[in-house]
Amino acid sequence: MKRVLSVASEAVPLVKTGGLADVVGALPEALIGQGWDMRVMIPAYRGVLDRLAGTTEVWSDSDLFGGPARLHLGTVGAMTVMALEAPHLYDRAGGPYSDLHGDFGDNAERFAALCWAAAAVAREGAGDWHPDVLHAHDWQGALAPAYLRYSGASLPSLVTIHNMAFQGRVGAEKIGALRLPHEAFHRDGYEFWGDISTLKAGLTTADAITTVSPRYAEELMRGEYGQGLEGVIAARAGVVIGILNGIDEGVWNPGTDPDCEPFSAASLSAKSRNRKALQAEFDLDKKIGGPLVILVSRLTAQKGIDLLPAAVEELVTRDGALAVLGSGDAWAEDLVRGLAARFPGRVGVKIGYDEGLSHRMFAGGDAVLVPSRFEPCGLTQLYGLRYGCLPLVSAVGGLADTVIGATPASLAAQAATGVVFHPVDALALRQAMRRLCDLHADRKTWTGMMKRAMKSDLGWTASAARYAALYERLLAQ
Question: Exposed, middle or buried, 164 (CB in 10 Å: 0-12/13-18/19+)?
Answer without folding.
Answer: buried
